[in-house]
Amino acid sequence: MGTDKWDHPKDRFFTHNGYADQAPNHVKKDGFGKGNWGKPGDEVQDLISEGAIPAEIMDKQRRGSNTSSNEDKLAKVQMNSVKE
């Protein structure tokens, strides 16, 4: 009695769209967000390629005030102030 659909249910994710090995609610999660707008920070590479942000700014390893030459100068000043 009834339809075959209700008498023999399919696997949980069989009737949903998406990849075979994944749950259908995970398909868009790698795009991070509603409508797959991307992950936070992805827009930076787009701005660099468009020329809105100079590439040199993003390639710095350290801040300029923390370079080793400045640290050496600061250490000498601190040692001189301790001696006085």
Automatic annotation (TrEMBL):
Q: Where is this region: Disordered?
A: 58-84
Q: Which domain of life is it from?
A: Eukaryota
- Residue intervals of the Hyaluronan/mRNA-binding protein domain: 23-72
Task: Show the InterPro entries listed in the entry.
Answer: HABP4_PAIRBP1-bd
The name this protein carries in UniProt is Hyaluronan/mRNA-binding protein domain-containing protein
Q: Which organism is it from?
A: Eeniella nana (Yeast)
The lineage, from the top, is: Eukaryota, Fungi, Dikarya, Ascomycota, Saccharomycotina
